[in-house]
Structures are given as C-alpha cells and as structure tokens.
C-alpha cells in the first residue's frame, strides 16, 4: 500500500515507505541482537539482505499492509519500522506493530510519537476506526509506549470488543476512534 503523502514528519522523525535500498547492514544487525528481537513475533533467524528486500517488496505490493521506516530527522538514520497489517476498510480495523531497532532511541518517547503518527494516519487517511496491537506483558517499554499514545488494554474495553479477535496470551491494546452516530 502506498502512503498517501509519501512521508510523514514530526519534529524528531520522518516516516516513509521503505525501499529495497533501505535493506542495509544496520537494519540487518537489529535481527542479530537478542535483546532487540526478544519480543518479536516472527523468528529472527536466517534473515539476510535478500530476505529483507523481499519483505519490503511484499509489503509495498500488498494492499492490506503499510510498512514504514522510522528515520531520525536530524541524522536521517533508519532507526526502526512501524507496520499496519491486515488493513480492513470494510470492518474499519487494522493491527499495528513497531520495532525500534536502534537502542540509543529506546526510552526516548520516539515509539509513542511514531504510534501517534501512524494511528492518526490510519484514522484520517485510511478511515480506520479500530487499531489494535498485541505484545508480551513483560515488554514494559512497548506497553508504556502504546498507553502513552492513547491505546488502552482490551480488558478495559467492552467484553464483546475484547473477545472479537480471540486473543489468548499477553496484552492486547486497542486504540478505538470513537464516533457519534446521529
């Protein structure tokens, strides 16, 4: 899926679609670090530059996902990714995942900033009302980043909404765009 305006920016970061040129050694190195990959849902083994290029190409060609690179505005360094996946405009929902690969940016509030930007994009440009994510309960930094970005735990939502996707383990967090129906 193509980003409507090709990129988004804030005071500290730029979000833009990844290209195969972004499949650099620095990006690859994130997957060799056990601390960085500890909470990833996909295994990090056997990732090379070619598989990163394939991943980027597949996401860019898919109409139901949007993979954005997170770039530090000041240095232009690629520091992570955010991905909307399972974009369903009929049911008006999508899931979101984030990886800050560069550890020097951990704890800086960048993840919350990115989540706010990507969530706003989902709401305003894609017409999505429900954005949800799952993460390991031990991943305190991720839980805090989502909560700071306005997400709430699914167990705090109405039971039928929390059960809709049949999540079993970990923490499920949702950002629901509330609309008044007249």
Structure report:
The chain is an alpha+beta fold and 182 residues long. It has a single domain, classed as 3-Layer(aba) Sandwich (Aminopeptidase). The chain is built from six helices and eight strands, in the order ββαααβββαβαβαβ. It has an eight-stranded mixed beta sheet, sandwiched between helices. Strand 1 and strand 2 form a beta hairpin. The longest helix has 15 residues. The radius of gyration is 16 Å and the shape is globular. The termini are far apart.
Give structural attributes.
182 residues, Aminopeptidase, 8 strands, alpha+beta, disordered C terminus, 27% strand
Give a concise summary.
The protein has 182 residues and is α+β, with helices and mostly antiparallel strands. The chain has helices spanning 25-30, 34-37, 49-61, 110-124, 140-148, 159-163; strands at residues 7-9, 13-17, 65-72, 78-88, 93-100, 130-135, 152-153, 171-176.
What is the element layout, followed by pairings?
Elements: E1 7-9, E2 13-17, H1 25-30, H2 34-37, H3 49-61, E3 65-72, E4 78-88, E5 93-100, H4 110-124, E6 130-135, H5 140-148, E7 152-153, H6 159-163, E8 171-176
Parallel strand pairs: 5-6
Antiparallel strand pairs: 1-2, 2-3, 3-4, 4-5, 6-8, 7-8
Helix pairs in contact: 4-5
